[in-house]
């Protein structure tokens, strides 16, 4: 018999029972559910709503259920619909009437709101920890390649010389923002919905501040309607994870390009690549491709929950049972992607020779040529035009700017002197870009040290 069966004159149809049940996915909330119930029972006893003896029996019964669940000794039932009613049914079967008193001054609405919020709060540090491990890999790799010249791109066209270290630190900056976004989500969600009841609170003399403090929340939620119907924190988490996956996907796209024969900037370790069933020469970047593909899956979770929530009047509606699966799936997906992506980067071989060779083509020192003339007194727009003519001439002749003789350069502008070749040398072009955030070694050293300090501060 269902715990809510008093109003009904017949049993639920089997199809409806299966359709309505959520135990197949919300059973992962068992720890949060039991922890919340323990705090609720202790508060009820402190407020004189139930006896101390009943509270002690509830506490002991719940501890036993928790131990049995973790030992794999509990089989959940769809007849009890969800994790909340499964635990309550188990408790009542074990301790009798005391178990029936646990749900005093509580609804499944505020119970599930509590459990889900606590679950999201628990997973955020796991995600942050994985991000910090990825950041540490980026720092290690960046320190090795501060002087490795590579072409920087805009429009996927070679643009200006940068270092591989600076390129890695750009992703380091993105993932750092992902960390702080997740932490902000954790701070914002840390209010306790327990005690909101079904929607309108309760007539019992409960102490919501006690349960909030016992469960590690900053305060109880200030409005009971909002307490049972808010899923902003789930949407915020999914938004944060979508942005995180977008960053991983952009990085994956570059890894895929870099390990192609057309680039060959990196070589993936054999342990993080796969082969072809028919082409024996293939070494495929499947890890990066799967991360790129799974990004759409996380986006789908966000859009699905946004769509579910968009038309719901206050307060709770059964539609909100659809909140958990997308969040669970997105968390599982990201927590699977981050470690394997970090390991792939940690074990890759960087082909600095190919990076340098690519940087030597495409006139990526053209801006430096224009800057050279500007420093000699020519207005930048004129210098830009002169350099553009030189690039066009070099393109027609199959030359680089460095290949031009001083006489050829001076034929275009008398401002060119012998020191122009030092100005056009790619290593110097990169080294002289010492403005804040640039690719010069001193700047990438600062960027790496700053990120390392961020990692250390967040792992204490």
What would your notes on this structure say?
With 460 residues, this protein is mainly alpha-helical. The protein folds into three domains: 13-104, Orthogonal Bundle (Fumarase C, Chain B, domain 1); 109-147 and 162-208 and 218-352, Up-down Bundle (Fumarase C, Chain A, domain 2); 358-458, Ribonucleotide Reductase Protein R1, domain 1 (Orthogonal Bundle). Helix content is 62%, strand content 5%. The chain has 20 helices and six strands. The radius of gyration is 31 Å and the shape is elongated.
How much is the average pLDDT? Answer: 94
For the report, how would you describe the main beta sheet? 2 strands, antiparallel
- Tell me, briefly, the overall form: elongated
CATH-defined topology of the largest domain: Fumarase C, Chain A, domain 2
Q: Unreliable runs, pLDDT <50, ≥5 residues? A: none
CATH homologous superfamily heading of the largest domain: Fumarase/aspartase (Central domain)
Write down how many β-strands occur, each being a DSSP E stretch of 2 or more residues.
6
Order of helices and strands: HHHHHHHEEHEHEHHEHHEHHHHHHH
Helix fraction, binned, reads 55-70%
Give the CATH level 1 class of the largest domain.
Mainly Alpha
- N-to-C CA distance: 50 Å
Supply the CATH architecture of the largest domain. Answer: Up-down Bundle
Strand content: under 5%
Q: What is the domain total for the residues?
A: 3
For the largest beta sheet, what order do the strands appear in spatially?
A: 1-2
